[in-house]
């Protein structure tokens, strides 16, 4: 987004309006804000309707949030009463380990017995233990799914003609025609994105999940780790510290919502609303470590999972509940997201999780297909 110091004073209200929309979970990229201000400049503007039309065409609110967008526009530019958003007092805080913190307004939901949306801030202390994840860390780099890069490397066979180098060789050899020189597109590992539920219902498993995340960040070329409960926190930078005890202590200090409530749907939507974060999901293997006990209405969770699935190479849910042989995806939330999941697997132990992550490169039937057979 443009630097505020470089903007004319008259442009500041338009930048602040875009920030207002982002605080209310509208997905707006920096390029859209720039286009909005350029559109206002081109239109004059001669009236407030010109500004409204410029905002609608460049900031592009989704049809289901058009009325909310209009209410925010009138509140900001006309001074109308602030639009009432159900559950506005609850906000999903987004904390980056670079020291940045934002908030996203989320819906207050009713119902739910095993999970809660009440925010309970606390810290956690991780004690050092023997490194039983060394094998996983060593194998992970070569076990992740790969994709073809747009960059090329020299090849001896099965490549395309490197015309520039071949012509250079011909010139340097005074017109003789040597063997053609070839290039081949490189293959690189896909990103690994871990989203870890740290709510109270996952209290028995989060310590193991953080150790797994540290091993993944150390072993993979590109891995990103976020925690979520009532807030969303990026802890990747903390986990890049080689010493596990120091890394987990730093991560524990960053996360404020240990053992609190659960807002899985809104926090995932908040993740997707930040362009820099949602870019981590593009083409990635995403593993969500959660029991998926979403409270009340699961519409936000279903929406978020569909958007993640559209961006990602593979979306997997590892739930500790699946460690029970009697487990079935019978809750309304799990039934809703099952069609978009590639995997629904056991997340009750480090052994099952490491085995699954190391198998991500292998094709498998979709989760819905497997669980319909059970």
From TrEMBL:
UniProt-listed Pfam families: VWA_CoxE
Gene3D superfamilies xref list: von Willebrand factor, type A domain
Alphabetized InterPro entries for the sequence: UCP010256 (IPR011195), Uncharacterised_CoxE (IPR008912), vWFA_dom_sf (IPR036465)
Region (Disordered): 82-115
Start-end of Basic and acidic residues biased regions: 92-107
PANTHER family: BLL5662 PROTEIN, BLL5662 PROTEIN-RELATED
Protein's UniProt name: VWA containing CoxE family protein
């Amino acid at each position: 987004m443009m630097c505020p110091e470089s903007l004319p004073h008259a442009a500041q209200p338009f930048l602040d309006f875009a920030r207002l929309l982002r605080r209310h979970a509208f997905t707006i990229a920096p390029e859209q804000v720039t286009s909005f201000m350029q559109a206002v400049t081109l239109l004059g503007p001669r009236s407030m309707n010109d500004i409204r039309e410029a905002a609608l065409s460049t900031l592009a609110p989704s049809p289901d949030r058009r009325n909310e967008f209009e209410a925010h526009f009138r509140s900001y530019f006309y001074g109308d009463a602030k639009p009432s958003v159900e559950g506005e007092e609850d906000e999903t805080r987004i904390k980056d380990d670079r020291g940045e913190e934002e908030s996203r307004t989320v819906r207050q939901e009713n119902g739910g017995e095993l999970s809660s949306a009440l925010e309970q801030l606390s810290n956690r202390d991780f004690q050092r233990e023997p490194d039983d994840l060394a094998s996983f860390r060593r194998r992970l780099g070569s076990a992740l799914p790969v994709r073809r890069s747009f960059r090329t490397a020299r090849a001896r066979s099965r490549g395309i003609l490197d015309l520039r180098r071949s012509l250079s060789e011909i010139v340097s050899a005074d017109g003789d025609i040597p063997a053609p020189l070839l290039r081949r597109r490189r293959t690189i590992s896909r990103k690994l994105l871990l989203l870890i539920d740290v709510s109270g219902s996952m209290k028995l498993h989060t310590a193991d999940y953080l150790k797994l995340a540290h091993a993944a960040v150390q072993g993979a070329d590109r891995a990103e780790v976020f925690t979520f409960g009532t807030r969303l926190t990026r802890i990747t930078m903390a986990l890049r510290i080689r010493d596990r005890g120091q890394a987990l202590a730093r991560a524990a200090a960053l996360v404020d919502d240990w053992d609190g409530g659960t807002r899985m749907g809104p926090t995932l939507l908040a993740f997707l609303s930040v362009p820099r974060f949602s870019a981590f999901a593009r083409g990635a293997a995403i593993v969500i470590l959660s029991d998926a006990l979403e409270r009340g209405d699961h519409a936000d969770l279903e929406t978020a999972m569909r958007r993640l699935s559209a961006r990602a190479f593979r979306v997997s849910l590892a739930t500790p509940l699946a460690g029970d042989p009697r487990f079935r995806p019978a809750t309304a939330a799990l039934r809703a997201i099952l069609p978009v999941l590639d995997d629904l697997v056991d997340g009750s132990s480090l052994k099952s999780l490491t085995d699954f992550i190391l198998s991500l490169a292998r094709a498998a039937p979709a989760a819905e297909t497997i669980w319909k057979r059970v």
